[in-house]
Amino acid sequence: MKVYLILLALFLALAGNSQKNAPIDAKATKETKALYDNLRKLSKQHTLFGHQHATEYGHGWSGDENRSDVKSVVGSHPAVIGVDFSGFTGGTPESRQRAKNDVRKTVINTYNRGGVTTVAWHFPNPLSKGGFNWVDSVSVPAVKYLIPGGKSNALYKEILGGIAEFAKSAKVADGKLVPMLFRPYHEFDGGWFWWGKPHCTKEEFLSLWRFTVSYLRDSLDVHNFIYTFSPDNRFLSEEQYLDRYPGDEWVDMVGVDNYGDMGRDKYDLETAAKKLKIVSDYAAKAGKLAAFTETGLETIPNPTWWTETLLKVMKAHKMQLAYVLVWRNDIRSPTHFYAPFPGQVSAPDFKKFYDDPYTLFENDLKGIYKKKKFLGIF
């Protein structure tokens, strides 16, 4: 009897742990569940490197087939490619359809090469001018109107319907849906976006997040999203980090966007590492994935930023980070870029970053959408 009780307790503990380390969508596609599981396993010893809009355009070019600035430097695309749903609302019907077609192509191509897609949503304010930024003279605090009970909830349902339609259209040749790390309402703790902390109450933000997940997952049957929560870096404790956290049942991955401590405002590597550790520790405790969802140093004037800043921060503590993503390289701007290109001053150091066994790029990934005991990597 005693042995039976011990075995039962062990089984229940393992079952509970299994429920934790799984997507919040019980109906998630097989490939989405496999991606979640493999990211969790890989993060024990590695971190995937990501770059926003990496294959869509880069420093001085756009639309070239199978090109990225990262690949031009090290011979491999980033493991994680960032795209954006920003063009899915506003504009004309033609421009919206064009945006969906372009993003769909990028998402499918990334999957077919074996890479991972993460989705930002710079959502233009649906109730006022000003775009996704908060502009004092024109912006409307839209959150309270979009949530259930708000006068524009029906409009928001329509917008989410467009997101769902896209998610279900991202199919590869064999009919499988492409999994995506969906990261809505990022950097909500600042005031620069219309969904930011000064423009809605805590309860309104939590309602917006929960309704977004519930409506996509439960009402519109979107089952290829992994939901990612990512404030900016305005916290120094777990309590502060979780101030607007919607709850474990509404989040798959926890992250942080941090440019300020990484050289933009100052070099405070100790504080940056502390914040990352808070995120990683919470993920481990709650059975979630963790990530460094945005970072970088514009123009990368520091020739050893990759190994002496970024790598040092990520290796400062025992952390499990699924990926790190740096921001985009603009087509025309001579200064707005966050990844090196051939001849850029940090390119030699980036090669060292690439060669470090801790970092994984697209060429390193094998079967990330298949569930298996051992994930093969070079």
Automatic annotation (TrEMBL):
Residue numbers annotated as active site: 187 (proton donor), 294 (nucleophile)
Cited InterPro entries: GH (IPR017853), GH26_dom (IPR022790), Glyco_hydro_26 (IPR000805), MANB/E (IPR016714)
Keyword flag Membrane: no
Protein EC: 3.2.1.78
GO MF: mannan endo-1,4-beta-mannosidase activity
Similarity annotation: Belongs to the glycosyl hydrolase 26 family.
Protein name per UniProt: Mannan endo-1,4-beta-mannosidase
Organism, as annotated: Segetibacter aerophilus
